């Protein structure tokens, strides 16, 4: 790849999150303030002489049971697996079964693409790390996806990931500078990291959630620090986003998404 994306100061994405907000548009439903009809009665209309029908009992609706949330680890697992060193042109790998802490070292100034394959996992599955409030990914069973870490300039070379899983898993760790540029449009489902290889300044982003509780988060990094963007929503949306290409986009979701260059 000829262009290297810039790592960003640690405070940059915090500021972007506060300024950007969600992608969805607030829609006024037009209802009356008290929740009744917003229509105005026609002047002079006579009231109906027929008595109002007796109210009937509403049918009982059985609410679906909530699926238990995956158990998020709060301390590193006792088992440790060393993945080795990640360098440009040289990926590191690790595999195991059950809970484990995966350690690795980053040789260079670049963000790390994490590919998790836990397709045969049966119990709650979580991929997270130290000091993370939100996991990279989590599911009630099988979990596969690509995630992006170490995007800040002050990221330490020595890093670790925590895998909480009931079953076999594998991890591949590589430099984002080893990603292959992909011409648009782009589409898919689930969490991934893609190199938008076009030259457009904007893109239309559409997203459909996989179900209740799903959300979309996009983190974008171009060849200049000013191109960094964070955007997302918890409701289905289609919106034009300023994405000065080329650049790397990390998508975190369970749902389906599409990206069309502007």
Topology, please?
Blueprint lengths: L11 H9 L59 E8 L4 E6 L2 E8 L4 E7 L6 E4 L8 E3 L3 E7 L8 E7 L3 E8 L5 E2 L3 E4 L2 E5 L5 E7 L7 E7 L6 E5 L3 E6 L4 E6 L3 E6 L1
Give keywords.
about 260 residues, mainly beta, Jelly Rolls, five-stranded mixed sheet, 1 helix, 18 strands
Can you characterise this structure?
The protein has 262 residues and is mostly beta strands. Among the domains are: 80-177, Spermadhesin, CUB domain (Jelly Rolls); 179-261, Jelly Rolls. Helices cover 3% and strands 40% of the residues. It contains 1 helix and 18 strands. It has one helix spanning 12-20, and strands spanning 80-87, 92-97, 100-107, 112-118, 125-128, 137-139, 143-149, 158-164, 168-175, 181-182, 186-189, 192-196, 202-208, 216-222, 229-233, 237-242, 247-252, 256-261. It has a 5-stranded mixed β-sheet, with no helix packed on it. It has a 5-stranded mixed β-sheet with strand order 10-12-17-14-15. A 4-stranded antiparallel β-sheet has the order 2-9-4-7, with no helix packed on it. The radius of gyration is 24 Å and the shape is globular. It starts with 11 loop residues before the first helix and ends with a strand. Mean pLDDT is 81; it is low at 9-59.
């Amino acid at each position: 790849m000829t262009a290297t994306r810039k790592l960003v100061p640690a405070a940059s994405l915090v500021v972007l999150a506060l300024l950007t907000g969600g992608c969805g548009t607030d829609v006024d439903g037009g209802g009356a303030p008290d929740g009744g009809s917003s229509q105005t009665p026609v002047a002079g209309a006579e009231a109906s002489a027929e008595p109002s029908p007796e109210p009937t009992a509403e049918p009982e609706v059985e609410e679906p049971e909530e699926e238990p949330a995956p158990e998020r680890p709060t301390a590193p697992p006792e088992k440790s697996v060393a993945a080795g060193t990640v360098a440009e042109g040289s990926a590191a790998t690790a595999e195991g079964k059950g809970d484990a802490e995966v350690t690795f070292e980053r040789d260079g100034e670049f963000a790390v693409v994490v590919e998790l394959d836990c397709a045969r996992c049966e119990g709650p599955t979580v991929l997270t790390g130290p000091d993370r409030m939100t996991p990279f990914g989590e599911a009630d069973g099988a979990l596969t996806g690509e995630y992006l870490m170490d995007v800040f300039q002050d990221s330490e070379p020595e890093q670790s990931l925590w895998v909480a899983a009931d079953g076999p898993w594998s991890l591949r760790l590589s430099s984002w500078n080893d990603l292959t540029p992909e011409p648009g449009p782009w589409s898919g489902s689930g969490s991934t990291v893609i190199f938008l290889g076009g030259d457009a300044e904007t893109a239309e982003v559409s997203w459909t959630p996989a179900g209740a509780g799903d959300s979309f988060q996009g983190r974008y990094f171009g060849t200049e620090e000013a191109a960094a963007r964070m955007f997302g929503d918890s409701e289905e949306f289609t919106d034009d986003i300023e994405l000065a290409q080329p650049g790397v986009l990390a998508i975190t979701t369970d749902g389906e998404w599409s990206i069309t260059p502007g």
